[in-house]
Amino acid sequence: MLDAMSGNEGGRPARRPRVIGRPQVPPGPLADLKALTYELCLDAGAPTLDEIAAAVAADDKLAGAPGRDTIGRVIGDSGLPTSQADVVAVVTVLARAARWDPGDAAGRARNLWGAARMASARYPAGGVRVGEVDPRRQGVHPAISVPGIPDEVPPEYVPRDADDGEFGVRAKVAAAAQRAGSCC
Amino acid sequence: MLLTGGSSAGKTRCAFEAVTALLSDWWLVYPAGPGGLAALAAAPALRTVVWLDELQRYLDGEHGLTGGMVRALLNAPDPVVIIATIWPDRYAANTAVPGPGGTDPHAREREVLDLADTVRIDPTFSPAEQDRARAAAARDRRLAVALEAEGYGLTQTLAAAPQLAQRRGRLSPWFALAVGQEFQPVRPELAEPPAVADVFRGGAQPGT
Fold first, then answer.
1. How confident is the model at residue A120 (pLDDT cuts 50, 70, 90)?
2. Which of A139, A146, B7, B70 is most buried (CB neighbours < 10 A)?
3. Of the candidates B13, B22, B141, which has its C-beta nearest A157's C-beta?
4. Which residues of B touch A144 (CB under 8 A)?
5. Has residue B192 got a pLDDT over 80?
6. Which tens digits make up the pLDDT trace of A49-70?
């Protein structure tokens, strides 16, 4: 059991706050994630949010550092937590306190969060996976016809000088992808 | 991310190769027009490449693309990358700053274009690119044919640009101007310039 979860400072009898309510979630990976977190929370002795937050804050090796409000949402809210790292941090400290295998619990939480994320993703109308798109449909000109080569096969791409380098197309696309969504 | 370059310079293929190499598991959406883009901005989706080939089609008109729509997409909680292409003449026309006291008919378009990170795609191949093309031509006969052709660049020949131009009888200095390329007449009898309006109505083909 983590000391940070003792809740009995100064020798005074601690008044145990009420246990966080179990969120109601439709069946699926999110429900499984919430069930895992909730079960861990009970097995860990139903610590308070402050106790869990203190345990998280005491471990610099955790990727996530959620505060008490975020922890409350991770355990008791019916929505998908925004940060996978926060979920893993909460699950890890709870698993230690519950004497579960922290690595196993963290791995399960990570996988369930990923599955729940995919299940809740909003796919764009008319969207196609980039790896499956037809270049002709994206505006690439049809090539000249040469006997023996099917027209539907695009010519071999000749790498352009503009592709590479610090200010090249690929560096800029990669930077744009990295920036995207990280501004909020 | 905006790629500028003349018709058949290879900018669309260049962009396509970049996103397939780097973002192959993302979603790609190719909006039909500004309306589709506005809908996407109102409800952005998970990890999406917004493909705006021939950006001028989204800029033109009363309800064209705005800086606000671009920012809404880029600031969405889920990652969005916008890839666009445009011809140099359209880029220049839409980014021109009016003189003192003059009207500013392209303020909206300029705001959109100023948000972009721009890369210019040269219509002609550098010596290094030609070396790579020669190496690839050993594996792809179409590249060999394009390398052997005279009068046009490799990407233009590969995209059958000379045939397109000659079929329309508009191979002229005006056409070259419209597609942002140096004029190199293949058939001297086609060098008579048509009206500029004709060029912009049908003489140049969108794409690549």
1. low
2. B7
3. B13
4. 142, 145-146, 157-160, 163
5. no
6. 999 999 999 999 999 999 999 9
Domains and CATH numbers, chain B: 2-120 (3.40.50), 127-203 (no CATH)
Please give the average per-residue pLDDT across A32-51, as a whole number. 92
On whether ipTM exceeds 0.90, the answer is no
Contacts B46 to A, Cβ<8 Å: 121-124
Contact A143 B159 (CB under 8 A): yes
B150, with CB counted inside 10 A (0-12, 13-18, 19+), is exposed
Pairing assessment for the beta strands B80-86 and B118-120 based on DSSP bridges:
unpaired
User: Domain-by-domain residue ranges, chain A?
Assistant: 24-120
Asked if B46 contacts A180 with a C-beta cutoff of 8 angstroms, the reply is no
Of B44, B117, B143, the CB nearest to A158: B143
* Type of residue numbered B94: N
Shortest distance, CA B151 to any CA of chain A (angstroms): 16
Of A30-39, A42-51, A123-132, the least confident: A123-132
CB contact under 8 A, B140 and A156: yes
Contact between B157 and A156 using a beta-carbon 8 Å cutoff: no
